[in-house]
Automatic annotation (TrEMBL):
Any single GO BP term: polyketide biosynthetic process
Species of the source: Botrytis fragariae
PANTHER family to which the protein is assigned, alphabetical: HYDROXYMETHYLGLUTARYL-COA SYNTHASE (PTHR11877), TYPE III POLYKETIDE SYNTHASE A (PTHR11877:SF46)
Region (Disordered) residue spans: 413-450, 469-499
Protein name: Putative chalcone synthase c protein
Transmembrane segments: none
Family (UniProt): Belongs to the thiolase-like superfamily. Chalcone/stilbene synthases family.
Boundaries of every Chalcone/stilbene synthase C-terminal domain copy: 254-399
Domain of life per record: Eukaryota
Amino acid sequence: MSNNTEGQNAQQQSTTQNGFGNLNLSIVGLGVEYPPFLLAPADLDTLTKRHYPDSPAMKKVCTINNFTGIETRSAIGTVDHPMANMDRAPTITELCSIFLKDGVALAVTACRKALHEAHLHPSDITHVVSTTCTNSANPGYDHFVCKALGITQPVEKVLLHGIGCSGGLASLRTAANLALGHSFRGKKARVLVMALEISSLLVRSELDSVHELQETRIGVTLFSDCASACVLSNGIGGTGEEESVYDLLGWEHKMIPDTEHDLGFDVDPLGWKVILSPRVPKLAAEAVSPSYHSLISNLPSLPSEYRSPSDFDWALHPGGATILTGVEKAMSISPEHMRASYDTYMKHGNSSSATIFSVLDRLRCKDMDGLTPNSRGPKEMIVGCAFGPGIAVEMCMLKRNLHHVKREWDGGVQSGVGGEVTPPLTESEGTRSVSGSEGEVEVEDLQKVKEEGEKLDRKLKMVEPGVLEQNAKLGEQGKENENETLDSLEEAMDGVELD
């Protein structure tokens, strides 16, 4: 069949008078890579005691931290990581160096896993769509991931920024439109989609703001580190080895008006600062139903047994416990409908844009199939949903291949995999329990941690002598605005249930 004929057929399949037709788009590989360390709630208590005096705001944050529903958060280091134990918060430049070292290594492994499951070689990739909100390097981190993967052929690359936790689904939507463009032209498309977030080392910057401004900043209790990837295929030029994990049937993108100040992630000399107003859970929950009904109306070929929200399984980005429970109530669904979202949230925390692919990867696992509502079994149709700054609502409809058997990646420890082959930065980091559940360290270990942090601090000061002056000015500005920015636990949690 000629390329022109294939393109015409693809165009006819992918367009209807009303909404989405047969797009012929499939996720043929998924890969998720979490770093090997896990932070327990007690670890935040340990860090606050080391570096900050007691204060009402700090006590409130630590109290909230024990009621998020998160058991552990994945991170590139333990609470003893030197970058978290300097006499100041690390600068954005210092954070970038860690991101491009340990973070890129995680992303490379996630991509290798996705390619392995898809039976594809890096040379098969035609497009790369990436996202992050925890790095602003130029060239972007995707450049270094592609280089490490050995992607040397010309590929169309897009790096999305400014979209936060909705970045995973926004990247999938962007990849879909790129793939459909190739389908129209009768050309093969194999789009590598990746998301990478390193949030754990922003802890000192966030705690500085809690201490200096006496703000109740709950972002520091939620976020974690992760890399995830998928491969999207348009079905043209396949070898026959590819097998769909999820078919992508359609998507929806909306902005909630006048909410840009409710959810954000602002650049700062000390990394990024989380903006999270107490209105977010309610706003997010209320926005799901309109997006859902709009998406359903644009899928005329959806089987008749799928109409009510409870007819589907759900892959919701676990932004927080109150977002999960809020969507449950708004859509009249149960925790079992969102079992993979809860599982990911409790075991790993909120890894921003990288989380949604982790949820989808977890949802297809056999143990998750045993936790369905009323033991009904897993559903083919999946609603994916995430929220990001703006506030943006990303939603998609996926069809799960219930017969697909996950192709496990047996590549072992790869050269440069973040955390797994990186030598411990301190003795205590290499020997401490991964769970870090004890919450306190011995005096000798604490002294070593502080000494290592001070050594790193002195070294970095030599490289960036102007940073301290800049940070001091920022601190003074924060103190001047203290009266305008004071917050309280009651205000922050007004109308919000901590499950």
